[in-house]
Amino acid sequence: MKNLNIVAVIDFGGQYTHLIARRVRELGVRSEIFSWNVTPKELESQHVKAIIFSGGPNSVNDIGAPKVSKETMSFLETHHIPILGLCYGHQLLSQYYGGKVQQGDQKEYGHTIIEIKYRDQLFKGFPPTNKVWMSHGDKVVALPAGFRISASSENCEIAAFECTEKQIYGLQFHPEVVHTENGQKLLSNFIFNIAKLKKNWSMEDYIDQQIEAIKAQVGDNRVIIGVSGGVDSTVAAILLHKSIGDKLHCVFVDHGFMRKNEPEQVERFFKTELKFTHFYRINAQEEFLSALKGISDPEEKRKIVARKFIEVFERIEKELEKKYGSFGFLAQGTIYPDRIESAQPSKTAAKIKSHHNVALPEKMKLKIVEPLKELYKDEVRAVGRLLKVPEELIERHPFPGPGLSIRILGEITQEKLDTLKEVDAIFIEELKQRGEYKNYWQSFAVLLPVKSVGVMGDSRTYEWTVVLRSVDSVDAMTADWSKIPYETLGFISNRIVNEVKKVNRVVYDITSKPPATIEWE
Ligand code: XMP
Description:
The protein is an alpha/beta fold. The protein has 16 helices and 18 strands. Helix 6 crosses helix 13, helix 7 crosses helix 13 and helix 15 (414-433) packs antiparallel against helix 16 (486-499).
């Protein structure tokens, strides 16, 4: 991954920093995030050829507000590296070059129309007016000498400025969010027309580079990886296998809470299609079920599943070590957002759920190798496609680590598990057959510990209630319930009550997140 010219995104703590890096990569240019206290040496060693200053929660006038050092700024000037400042970054640039930033009369949040004055640089090819997304309290009220206003909005005269001579550009709004029309075109103008970068980031290159990087990192060591059948761990395992072959050992802990036929599919894929020599499906269903016996509390369930998972994984690791010798590394399918989320836990955020799958590396004493740690989910999917991972697996809806154990409310029994698997399978099969599966972000069924009265034929029934849940989301942080056509829902409900013996009532969950969460536990 050396010698690739990159766009550095300087992070001032803005909520969209990662989105900026991601947008740049979408344009086919490598991009990395650096802290605001980045040194000239770091920028030089990384071949930085353009800089984007992110937004941030501070005011540039605050004491102790994050600022790029004078040394770094003069390095950028001497090397003629173009800078684009967004929101806080825009204000910081203006302040650094002698302009003035003040608190606005009112905070501006949401859509605004800007009028564009100069359309030869950043706004090349733009219409005279453009809808943009603003989110700020402060604003630039006086320009530095030699700068010009390139766009204005009703509430913000200096909505964009530029100094073409110094190649410095500022935008009070956010081109990286989808609500800004032509936002990607703006970034493209900056990267290709102004900074004159060439495309250099493709998933094909990434695969080749990673295969080499893994070899260099793990050397002759054996590597163990836990796979779940999900896209991240599968793609990570394939990359590792391409790199170190049979020195990779894949452990698939079958806790019994996977969807119908899924464990068999996972096993077949790794053993028959990928022909992995060291793939182990560990049938631990009974062990998990008995550990959960009598447990109804959601958090307790999650903790037991996580603990059991580590216990089983470590046991298998020891057994394998006896047979093959010790492992040097534990591989993980961690992706970029996972790292960011776990690196920046909010101090004030209340704990909603204990997610299972972050606990593993903390407990293990092995060194970690994470071949996907620089990628976003859509990039992992793109890598997966290039590695010929079946489309069905790539497009599969997200599935929680504890699986169906957190979709059976109350105590889990084998009978309830079997029932839920059938219901879920019908739901998903119907969505797929109707070509609707891809329209929804995540769809699944939940079994409630509630029985209700029904009538079938001439007889009274008294059976379980199931919930169908389907949501539209981008990142699982917020979600809305999917507007599945009534006809589809009706058909699915009918199939469920006719085909699944223990269920006589089907309900559809129409709650968004927040206030609900996506899963029921
Ligand atoms: P919630 O229910 O918190 O779910 O709105 C958000 C997303 O996370 C998934 N989820 C998990 N994923 N381990 C995971 O890998 C877990 O323990 C876990 N719990 C929830 C959930 O399916 C949804 O996509």
